[in-house]
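Internal ticket #5521
Category: modeling
Description: The requester needs a full-assembly model to guide mutagenesis choices. All entity lines are attached below as received. Residue total reported by intake: 377.
Assigned to: D.W.
Attached entities:
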Amino acid sequence: MIRFPLWILGALLLGGIVHLSTVLAMPQAATQDAYSRLERITSVNAVTQLSAPSAQNATMPFMDPAFAVAVCRYDLSAGALKLRAPLSQAYTAITFYTRNSVAYYAINDRAAGRHVIELDLMTPEQHAQVPEEEDVTAADRLIIESPTRLGLIVLRALAPEPGLMPMVRRALAGAQCHIEPVPQQ
Amino acid sequence: MRLFFGSCFILILAAAIGLGATWLTVTRGIAFGSLTIGAWTAWPKSGSVDIDPYARAAIARIGDLPVGVGDGVAFYAHTDDARNMLDGRCAFVISGITPAARFWTLTLYDTQGRLVANTLDRHGFTSAEILREADGRFAISIGPRARPGNWLPSGGIEQFVLVWRLYDTPIGVASLTTKEGPMPAVVRKGCT
């Protein structure tokens, strides 16, 4: 019966491979991930404000109820994306996620240093096409590279007290994002 | 024939081991690079491109969006300091001081990440609205019955989760040591 421990060892090794491959495949296979949830209620390349989370319904689990949230779901196939977001008084942060919910960039109002955050989002290929002199002269032009063609920009604005929520929501309603075709040389 | 049955046996066993291990790691929220201070645990790397495959799988399953590292860091508590489960039928007190951050919020969820219904419509506190002592310390009472001061209703649910989010904070960005900041203590004060 030397064979039996060998069978078990083989099963363990195969089991390890199954485990690792399922963990790696999970983000692609998930149907209830944040992007899929938001795909149903947002339109592409436009800012949509999410309803406040309550005990009865919430767009996503573990949402912070002190924040007003707006989402720009983007698709960079047709060109680069321009985002313009006015800041509210207390605290505003903009976080960029890939299609699979990996946060690859985040900026907050203090880092922006102005009353409006304006930036361009493009794929590395589109960034390479931007004429170099334009890149240099526009020193205050913030360009962010998206590792994926699809993704999410999430704008979060804090209402330090519940009474300030309507004001924060009004400020966030001024946020815009739209596609700007890359000029062809 | 024996080879055939043996092969079937190890394939079934391998599938069970592999899928079982995946299920366990993803539902238990096992991820690397955690930062634990008292009852609170954060995974600062989950909000960056350095996120590990286990955290990615867990986030994809739950369907939330992690707080980005440039934005802040989220600490989760499932137990109190003495490792008692956070039971909604018991009274808990959170007290002390918080690490440096421009703003923080404390929110109470059920284990699925939903807010808990209550008559006050209160689901958490922000650093701006909390009542403090003269020296800046604060105490938050969590329980099913109303308390004076900062009361966070737990609705009497079986188990709840507390999430402490620090916004615009150096914690988790620079290094991963527990000396970075004191997190508030979570203490159970008896059950009904």
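Resolution: model delivered.
Comment from assignee: The helical segments of chain B are 2-28, 53-62.
Ticket closed.
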